[in-house]
Specification:
single chain; mainly beta; Complement Module, domain 1; three-stranded antiparallel beta sheet; 8% helix; 35% strand; rod-shaped
Length: 205
């Protein structure tokens, strides 16, 4: 009778002093035998598996799961909502507008910021602007209008005869012996600023 009591006492003592398993091994300890995912499914050593919905793929080894973060695609620079519930984060929403000089423009929208400057909201969120290239004027006295980018010839085509501005399209006598005209070439007035002048013999008074 006393012997049986002693055996029971020793058994109870051993059960009390046995350490609790660490929290990370709440499932049965399969180290050296296999690996367990979050749902309790067991994988053999050498198998590839995904521990959980948001985890990256792992390889089951005799030391436990060997997990390596893969090279994930870069997120779009305009991403404003990122989903991190998977191994690689994914962009769920992108910004579809540009901010420029305090104003909002939609993607691919074109707009003028000045009479000479045209801009466009690009898909990457940047604003690209180009300045209008003005053609050479057909006059030597162009003027700028407030709402126009390029200067205009209000007085029509003209050129210089020395220091005098003469109209294009007709010969102009600048003095008693000299006749000048602006040069017309290739369908336009070729403005070299100075007129072509011919000096004739004339009577000296």
């Amino acid at each position: 009778f006393f012997k049986k009591t002693s055996d029971l006492f020793c058994t109870a003592f051993l059960e009390i002093t046995t350490p609790e398993p660490p929290e990370e091994y709440a499932y049965p300890d399969y180290r050296g035998k296999g690996c367990v995912d979050e749902s309790g499914f067991v994988y053999a050593i050498g198998e590839k598996f995904t521990p959980g919905p948001s985890a990256c793929p792992c390889l089951c080894t005799d030391e436990g799961p060997l997990c390596i973060q893969p090279e994930c695609p870069r997120l779009h620079p305009r991403c404003i909502h990122v989903d991190t519930s998977q191994c690689c984060p994914q962009c769920k929403e992108r910004k579809n507008y540009c901010e420029f000089r305090g104003k909002i423009y939609q993607t691919l929208e074109e707009f003028m910021v000045s009479p000479c400057e045209r801009c466009r909201c690009e898909a990457n969120g940047e604003v690209l602007c180009t300045v209008s290239a003005c053609p050479q004027t057909e006059c030597v006295d162009p003027v700028y209008e407030p709402d126009q980018c390029c200067p205009i010839c209000k007085n029509g085509p003209n050129c210089f005869a020395e220091t005098t501005v003469i109209p294009a399209g007709r010969e102009v006598k600048t003095d008693e012996c000299t006749i000048c005209h602006c040069t017309y070439e290739e369908g336009t007035w070729r403005i070299e600023r100075q007129a072509m002048c011919t000096r004739h013999e004339c009577k000296q008074i």
